[in-house]
C-alpha cells in the first residue's frame, strides 16, 4: 500500500458538477482529492480487505441473532422497548439488506482492524462507485496512471443486481433529508441504480412523508408507500414522533430494522465478547464495563450513536487527549483499544470497505490531517497495480 502523487484532471470539477456530484468541496475545502491515489497489490485487496470484510459480516450476523433475543443487549444498545419485537421480527423474517461500509484501520502489512460498521446510512457511496471508476478510466486514457491499473470496485453493478433481485413489487420510494447535498446526492444515485435494476421509483424528502388515518405512510401525491429506502438512521426514526407509527405502517424499509444493531457502536464490544482475539477485531467494552480500565495503551471513546467522528475522544499515553465536539453521548458510549490509523506523508488514512447484499465489492479511502476521521476528511481514489 502506497500513497502516490498524480496529476489531476483539469476538468474534474466541471464533470463532477455536471454529474450531480455537488459536494466535491465541503466547508470551503476539497472533499474529492485526486492529487494523489493509493496503490494496492491484488493480494492486499483480496487477502487483507475483501476476505476479512466478508468474514466480519458473518460474525456480525451472529451478533444480531443473539441481540434480538436479549432484552439486556437491546437495552445496552439504547433501542426503545417499543421497537424490540419489531427489530426481532425484521431479523427472523429475513428482511433483506442492501449495503454497508466497514471502516478499517490498515496500512498494508498488519491485519486490518474493524473500527466501526456504517451499516444503516453509509455515505460516500456515489464517489466510491461511479466517480472513482470514472477517474480510473480517464486516468488510464490520459496516461496519468500506468497501463494495467485496476480498481477494487464492482459497487455499481452489485447495486443494480441487488435491486433487480430484491423482489420489490410496485413503486420504490427513496428519501433523504432536505438541505443536505451529500445525502440527496447519495439517494439520487441509489435511485439511479434501482431504475437500472428495473424498478419504478419516486424520490421525496423525509420531512414530506405523511401518515393517513389508517397509519400508512404516504407521499406528497397521497400514494401509499410500500417500500422505502431511507437515508435516515434508525435511532432517529425510533424517537421521532412519526416513527411511533412505523411498527404498524406495513412499510418495508431499506435498510431493515435489524441494521439498528449493526450500525450501533455497541456492536464493537459485542463482537469482542463473542469473538475475542479475532485478528480483525480490537478489544472493546461498554464504557461502564470495569474491563474498560484494562486499555492502558490508549483507547477511543465513541458514543453509540455517533456519526462522522462527532463526540469521539482519543486518549493516547503521554499525549493530550483529542476530542471532536458534537451532539451525542447521552445515549451511552463504548471504549475501543487505540489502533492508530496508518499515516502516509502526514495523512491519517482510513479504509472504507463496501458490501452490497452482504458481499464485499469495493473500497474507498478517506484521509485527514487529524487522527480522527470527520465528515470533512478528504476522499482519494485507489488503484490495484503490481
Summarize the structure in short.
The protein is α+β, with helices and mostly antiparallel strands. The chain contains 10 helices and 22 strands.
Tell me what portion of residues adopts beta-strand conformation: 15-25%
Low-confidence stretches: none
Measured between the Cα atoms of the first and last residue, the distance is: 10 Å
Q: What would you report as the Rg, rounded to the nearest angstrom? A: 21 Å
Number of separate structural domains = 2
Structural class: alpha+beta
Walk me through the structure.
The chain is an alpha+beta fold. The chain folds into two domains: 304 residues, no CATH class; 56 residues, no CATH class. It is 28% helix and 25% strand. It contains ten helices and 22 strands. The strands form six sheets. Strands 5, 6, 18, 19, 20 and 21 form a six-stranded antiparallel beta sheet that branches. Strands 13-17-14-15-16 form a five-stranded antiparallel beta sheet. Helix 6 packs across helix 7. The longest helix has 26 residues. The protein is globular and about 60 Å long. The protein starts with a strand and ends with a strand. 43% of the residues are buried.
Helix-strand layout with pairing:
Blueprint: E1 2-5, H1 12-18, E2 25-26, E3 29-30, E4 36-40, H2 42-67, H3 71-76, H4 84-92, E5 99-105, E6 113-118, H5 125-141, H6 155-164, E7 171-176, H7 181-196, E8 200-205, E9 210-211, E10 217-218, E11 227-230, H8 234-237, E12 252-254, H9 259-262, H10 267-274, E13 284-286, E14 299-303, E15 313-315, E16 322-323, E17 333-337, E18 342-344, E19 347-356, E20 359-368, E21 378-380, E22 382-384
Parallel strand pairs: 4-22, 7-8, 7-11, 11-12
Antiparallel strand pairs: 1-4, 2-3, 5-6, 5-19, 9-10, 13-17, 14-15, 14-17, 15-16, 18-19, 19-20, 20-21
Helix pairs in contact: 6-7
Amino acid at each position: 500500500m502506497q500513497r502516490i502523487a498524480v496529476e489531476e484532471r483539469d476538468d474534474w470539477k466541471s464533470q463532477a458538477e455536471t454529474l450531480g456530484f455537488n459536494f466535491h468541496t465541503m466547508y470551503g475545502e476539497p472533499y474529492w482529492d485526486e492529487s494523489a491515489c493509493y496503490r494496492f497489490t491484488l493480494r492486499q485487496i483480496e487477502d487483507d480487505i475483501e476476505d476479512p470484510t466478508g468474514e466480519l459480516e458473518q460474525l456480525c450476523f451472529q451478533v444480531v441473532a443473539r441481540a434480538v433475543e436479549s432484552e439486556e443487549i437491546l437495552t445496552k444498545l439504547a433501542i426503545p422497548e417499543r421497537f424490540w419485537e419489531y427489530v426481532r421480527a425484521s431479523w427472523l423474517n429475513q428482511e433483506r439488506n442492501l449495503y454497508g461500509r466497514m471502516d478499517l484501520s490498515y496500512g498494508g502489512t498488519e491485519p486490518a482492524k474493524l473500527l466501526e460498521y456504517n451499516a444503516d446510512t453509509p455515505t460516500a457511496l456515489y464517489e466510491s462507485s461511479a466517480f472513482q471508476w470514472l477517474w480510473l478510466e480517464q486516468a488510464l486514457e490520459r496516461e496519468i496512471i500506468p497501463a494495467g491499473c485496476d480498481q477494487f470496485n464492482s459497487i455499481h453493478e452489485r447495486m443494480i443486481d441487488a435491486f433487480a433481485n430484491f423482489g420489490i413489487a410496485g413503486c420504490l420510494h427513496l428519501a433523504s433529508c432536505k438541505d443536505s447535498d451529500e445525502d440527496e446526492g447519495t439517494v439520487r444515485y441509489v435511485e439511479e441504480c434501482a431504475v437500472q435494476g428495473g424498478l419504478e421509483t419516486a424520490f421525496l424528502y423525509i420531512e414530506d412523508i405523511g401518515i393517513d388515518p389508517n397509519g400508512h405512510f404516504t407521499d406528497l401525491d397521497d400514494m401509499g408507500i410500500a417500500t422505502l429506502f431511507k437515508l435516515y438512521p434508525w435511532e432517529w426514526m425510533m424517537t421521532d414522533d412519526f416513527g411511533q407509527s412505523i411498527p404498524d405502517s406495513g412499510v418495508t424499509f431499506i435498510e431493515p430494522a435489524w441494521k439498528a444493531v449493526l450500525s450501533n457502536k455497541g456492536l464493537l464490544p459485542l463482537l469482542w465478547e463473542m469473538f475475542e482475539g479475532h485478528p480483525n477485531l480490537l478489544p472493546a467494552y461498554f464504557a461502564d464495563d470495569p474491563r474498560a480500565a484494562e486499555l492502558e495503551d490508549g483507547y477511543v471513546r465513541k458514543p453509540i450513536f455517533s456519526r462522522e467522528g462527532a463526540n469521539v475522544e482519543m486518549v493516547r499515553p503521554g499525549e493530550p487527549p483529542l476530542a471532536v465536539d458534537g451532539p451525542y453521548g447521552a445515549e451511552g458510549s463504548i471504549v475501543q483499544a487505540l489502533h492508530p490509523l496508518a499515516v502516509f506523508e502526514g495523512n491519517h488514512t482510513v479504509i472504507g470497505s463496501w458490501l452490497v447484499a452482504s458481499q464485499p465489492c469495493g473500497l474507498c479511502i478517506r484521509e485527514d490531517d487529524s487522527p480522527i476521521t470527520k465528515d470533512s476528511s478528504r476522499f482519494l481514489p485507489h488503484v490495484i497495480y503490481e
